[in-house]
Amino acid sequence: MSKLRPETQLGEAATSSCAFAGCAKKWIFRLALVFALYAVCSWLDTIKDRWYVFDPPFLHELAKDAIATHPNNLDGMIQHIVTNLTTTYPASAGVIALNPDTSEWVFNNAGGAMGAMYIIHASITEYLIIFGTPLGTEGHTGLHTADDYFHILVGEQWAFRPGALEMERYKPGDLHLLPRGTAKQYKMHEGCFALEYARGWIPLMLPFGFADTLSSTLDIPTFLRTAHLTGREIIKNLLIGKI
């Protein structure tokens, strides 16, 4: 049996050593990149409050005022909410961009539930929509990086979390708060619509919002329209400095 010459053995050892060193450098770089990304995200999470514009108690009072002013009139409630918001946050102030076009409704399939939504506002750290269905629906809330405030306008919503032996029930004027990092099963009965406000990292919620469309319904026109409306509103806000 032939033996490797000493210089050949040394060459192979050197090659193996270089390969190991190169691999180690790549992994060190990758770990450093992950650590840096984590540090930046953690820092941003501590200062995200400075970019919030909407006040949850104000929105709750606005929803209740809309219900009281236009009882059993959902269209009137929506117009009341939008008119109040555009007056409180006029475009001329350059603080926040809103979408006053109440005709821009689009289907929304997420977590097994289906309804329609009208986007009033969307930015990196906040969104405000009207969501609901006249038919009723049920599904998973999703596990999000944002706090979600569900202000019931008409109808009734039920919710349940593991371990609870009784359901939560929310009626017109009630607030259903879903803190970030928590999840529930929920049901919206026939004719239930709500003013939904989320504050946190909104882009991280989008995969949940698009997953059912891309993996189940395959309603590509709805996907494209939703992406267009959401992207348009986020860009409008970025252009005026609203994160």
Describe this protein with a few key phrases.
single chain; 243 residues; alpha+beta; 6-stranded antiparallel sheet; 4-stranded antiparallel sheet; 5 helices; 42% helix; 25% strand
Explain what the structure shows.
The chain has 243 residues and is an alpha+beta fold. Helices cover 42% and strands 25% of the residues. The protein has 5 helices and 10 strands, in the order αααββββββββββαα. The strands form 2 sheets. It has a 6-stranded antiparallel β-sheet. A 4-stranded antiparallel β-sheet has the order 4-9-6-7, with no helix packed on it. α2 (56-69) crosses α3 (74-88). 27% of the residues are buried. The model has no long low-confidence stretch (mean pLDDT 91).
Describe the secondary-structure layout.
Elements: H1 6-47, H2 56-69, H3 74-88, E1 105-110, E2 113-122, E3 126-133, E4 137-140, E5 146-154, E6 157-160, E7 168-170, E8 175-178, E9 185-188, E10 192-200, H4 206-217, H5 220-239
Antiparallel strand pairs: 1-2, 2-3, 3-10, 4-9, 5-8, 5-10, 6-7, 6-9
Helix pairs in contact: 2-3
Order of helices and strands: HHHEEEEEEEEEEHH
Mean pLDDT: 91
Q: What's the arrangement of strands in the largest beta sheet?
A: 1-2-3-10-5-8
Assembly annotation? single chain
**Discrete helix count:** 5
Largest sheet descriptor: 6 strands, antiparallel
Percent range of helical residues: 40-55%
Alpha-carbon Rg, integer = 25 Å
Any low-confidence stretches, pLDDT <50, length ≥5? none
The percentage of residues in β strands lies in: 25-35%
